[in-house]
């Protein structure tokens, strides 16, 4: 019987491979995070492709109506936040919202569901963390992708010269160039850092609470776990929505003149 410390350590340990020969080093890859995120991304794509191919104007099914509701919600938010024309922003926002929501939704699965399957397959004690957004590597990968888009959209809207001029002359004018550059760099890099840490912090905390509840007697698990799981659905939805909206807002600011 594992102690509480061993139980928590087991559930917080990633399934990793090391590419550099230095375990825990920079080139350590969390296989569980990558595989789970790929599977969820494929699930999202296949779902929307199937709904699009089976789209009905007359007598649509309940699932199609649900997908249309999500699509309309995202489109409405994008139209309110992004004031220029772009065929890329709305699909990007929809992808971010659905993908991050699916990441977070894994946190509502039973804590020991992976242990049940690995034990049934003859691999007791195998490590597999099921919540990609509770891995800071994944949240930073998403946020760094947003950072690249911010820079690309800034250069696309203002040109290399216009973007460089903004970096060097705003907000204090050309005579305070070093301070302008410092403040601009702080603003640019604070965006992905805040995006990554906000999502990671909330999902890691939620994962820890589920693990701690699982250590309690079974009757307390039901009493405490059920309302927390229901409330957690609101949290995971809100986190996906915030990540999507902040991405859209940042891209909107990137193409506007300041």
Question: What spatial form do the alpha-carbon principal axes imply?
Answer: globular
Task: Please provide the count of β strands.
Answer: 2
Strand content: under 5%
Using only CA atoms, what is the Rg? 22 Å
Low-confidence stretches: none
Spatial order of the strands forming the largest sheet: 1-2
Major sheet: size, sense and barrel closure?
2 strands, antiparallel
Assembly state: single chain
Give the CA-CA distance, first to last residue.
Answer: 61 Å
Q: Which series of helices and strands comes N to C?
A: HEEHHHHHHH
Give the number of domains: 1
How many DSSP helices? 8
Briefly summarize what is shown.
This protein is mainly α and 258 residues long.
Can you offer a commentary on this structure?
The chain is mainly α. The chain is 72% helix and 2% strand. It contains 8 helices and 2 strands; from the N terminus they run αββααααααα. It has helices spanning 4-11, 31-53, 62-81, 89-105, 113-120, 136-169, 177-214, 218-255; strands at residues 16-18, 28-30. It is globular, with a radius of gyration of 22 Å. The model has no long low-confidence stretch (mean pLDDT 88).
Sum up the structure in keywords.
single chain; 258 residues; mainly alpha; 8 helices; 2 strands; globular
Compile the SSE list and pairings.
Elements: H1 4-11, E1 16-18, E2 28-30, H2 31-53, H3 62-81, H4 89-105, H5 113-120, H6 136-169, H7 177-214, H8 218-255
Antiparallel strand pairs: 1-2
